[in-house]
Amino acid sequence: MLDPFSSLPVPSRRGVLKGVGGAALLGAGIPLLSACGDSGSSSDPKTVTLGSNQSDAVPKKAYGEIYTAFTKQSGLTVKVNTKDHNTFQEQINSYLQGTPDDVFNWFAGYRMQFFAQKGLASPVDEVWEKIGGNFPDAMKKLSKGADGKYYFVPLVTYPWAIFYRKSVFQEKGYTVPADWDAFLALCKQMKKDGLVPIAFGDKDAWPAMGTFDQLNFRVNGYDFHVELMAGKASWTDAKVKTVFDHWAEILPYHQDGFMGRTWQDAAQTLVSKKAGMYVLGSFVAQQFTNKADLDDLDFFAFPEINPSFGQDTVEAPTDGFMVSKSPKNKAGVTKLMEYLGTPEAEQIYLKSDTSVVAASNKADTSSYTALQKKAFEMISGAKSLTQFMDRDSRPDFTSTVMQPSLQKFLQNPKGVDSLLSSIERQKKTIFASS
Questions:
Q1: What local confidence, expressed as pLDDT, does residue 248 receive?
Q2: At what angle do helices 238-250 and 207-229 cross, to 10 degrees?
Q3: What angle do CA 6, 318, 178 make, to 5 degrees?
Q4: How far apart are the two ends of the chain, measured CA to CA in Å?
Q5: Count H helices, E strands: the chain?
Q6: Beta strands 196-199 and 275-281: pairing type?
Q7: Are 76 and 47 in contact (CB under 8 A)?
Q8: Strand 77-82 to strand 47-52: parallel, antiparallel, or no bridges (unpaired)?
Q9: Would you say 180 and 187 are in contact if contact means Cβ atoms under 8 Å apart?
Q10: Rounded distance, CA 245 to CA 255, Å?
Q11: The pTM is what?
């Protein structure tokens, strides 16, 4: 897929990120991820080392500009150790157990909590005493470990929603659906009008996980979603069956041939006005290369299903920073993390990358595009934020169990009971392992 933080084609970020599960899963023959300098042993009080997974041109440049600005302000040098994005993920467990850099790029939510619980990250509560006022409550929640301490400083984020062309809705007289019945009626009308109601491509197996997430927190709410992703709730619970029942209702309106179609190809049907809607992250905008088409792109929150939960949860994958278990330059690390939590740092990043928005609700949005402004408002106004299935759960579970299981459902929605029993059995085995 196209990485949401790059304009260049890269392997799927939603791919098999097995390193979280344990060092034994590391592929043989892959050069090991190591720290800067001499095994990360530098204790230079003027240097902070940073392990980066931002290997693609656009984010690498954007992050580099933040570190340059920090150096000018503080006099401290940030020594960046950049590794290939997927390699970093695959080897993160081994890296953090060795002699890692002082600070490292990572993801909010469960993926952060996993390493915090294993004692492979340092809490940053003193940093949050300084930066807390820069973030909404939902973003604060995403940055805390299970012990209630802060382990993460967020930088950028983007929402998942339902994208559409304003001109198509205007021409056909469609209105944005607020609830499930209205959404179903709109799908039916689009099909009648000769449109593909919902663009869809699941060749890389991760887009379906995004649809599941939307349905799950609309049907069952944020808390159940988190419990399910953490392996605490059962996949055979009737609540989960209800999610798949709703999905089965809209499945006839999904684009045919999705197993052989990438998300980019599916997006082109929205660009060409052959599809009416698309459930995806805002990185879909990267496919709208013509300015007039991009200006015509809009989105709305996934419709309400259960009035108890409304539309108060937004899926907003969030990238930022963590501190390793024993940073060599603690004072320098604290200064850097405090700077990374400022609107200034975010605005420097966003000058180079407009496909995302600031995690802070204090950032200057005056230079945002209309789409960015709307994305920012949706995220800032959310009661709860989720991170996407492969970030809210164990990556080995989502890649080896959930991706193939969801594809089985999409091809045979009537076999859901046995499918959920199979998922639950496999979940118990995987979550029982260290």
A1: 97
A2: 160
A3: 100
A4: 30
A5: 18, 13
A6: parallel
A7: yes
A8: parallel
A9: no
A10: 18
A11: 0.79
CB 404 within 8 A of CB 418: no
> Which residues, at least 6 apart from 428, have a Cβ–Cβ distance to it below 8 Å?
none
| Helix pair angle (180-192, 238-250), 10° resolution | 30
Residue 170 CA to residue 251 CA, distance in Å, equals 25
pLDDT of residue 35: 62
Token look-up 């799950």 returns 216
- Cα separation, 300 vs 418, whole angstroms: 34
Model pLDDT, residue 431: 92
Q: Are 199 and 275 in contact (CB under 8 A)?
A: yes
Q: CA-CA-CA-CA torsion for 66, 67, 72, 78, nearest 10 degrees?
A: 170
- Say how far apart CA 80 and CA 365 lie, in whole Å: 28
Which pLDDT score, from 0 to 100, does residue 65 have? 96
Alpha carbon distance 320, 155 (integer Å): 5
Task: Give dist(CA 279, CA 14) in Å, integer.
Answer: 16
Positions of the chain with pLDDT under 50: 1-31, 37-41
Measure the CA–CA gap between 351 and 102, rounded to whole angstroms: 26
Q: How many CB atoms lie within 10 A of CB 60?
A: 17
For residues 186 and 300, the answer to whether their CB atoms sit within 8 Å is no
Concatenating the DSSP letter of every residue in 19-73 gives: GGG-GGGSPTTPPPP--STTTT----TTEEEEEE---SHHHHHHHHHHHHHHHHH
- How many residues are present in the chain? 434
Three-state SS letters, 317-339: CEEEEEEECCCCCHHHHHHHHHH
Q: Going by C-beta distance under 8 Å and a sequence separation of 6 or more, which residues neighbour residue 40? A: 34, 49, 98, 99, 100, 101, 102, 328
